[in-house]
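Appendix B. One record, verbatim.
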Amino acid sequence: MAALKLSFGRGAKKEKTPAQTNTVPVRSKTKDADSPGEEWRIRGLSFLMKDDFTSAIEAFTQAVSADPSYGRAFHNRGFAAYKLEQFEAAVRDFDKAIDLDPGHAEEAGSYVYRGLCNEKIGRHEQAIEDMKLAVTFKNKDAEHYLLWLSRGGDSQR
């Protein structure tokens, strides 16, 4: 298997959050670099970058199999499920990511995406609660989504 080379440029521009770009951030080195599932998670991220969400889910599943306490891999798998509109599965993965790392929760992204999933499956009040939790992390996207939800969310369309 050929080695995958990822480039991680840092410019003067302010980076957008995952919800702004609707993508998952890729980091060259994470606090979980020593996790037995990290190699699989990196593979999964490369599939996400190619919009191959099914393969991404498979790779993230390998990551959580290798390390069942790997919250970031659960978050990433949840994001891939969200992109495939598998909202119930995504909620389960975001729940697990939050349970494993409640103070971090992938920079509040797990709360934001769980809220978006909850809105899609008709749990409007839970979606609002998720966004309120994300706001406590100073997540600007959550503030935007909370306003949207307070105005009716998907029912506005």
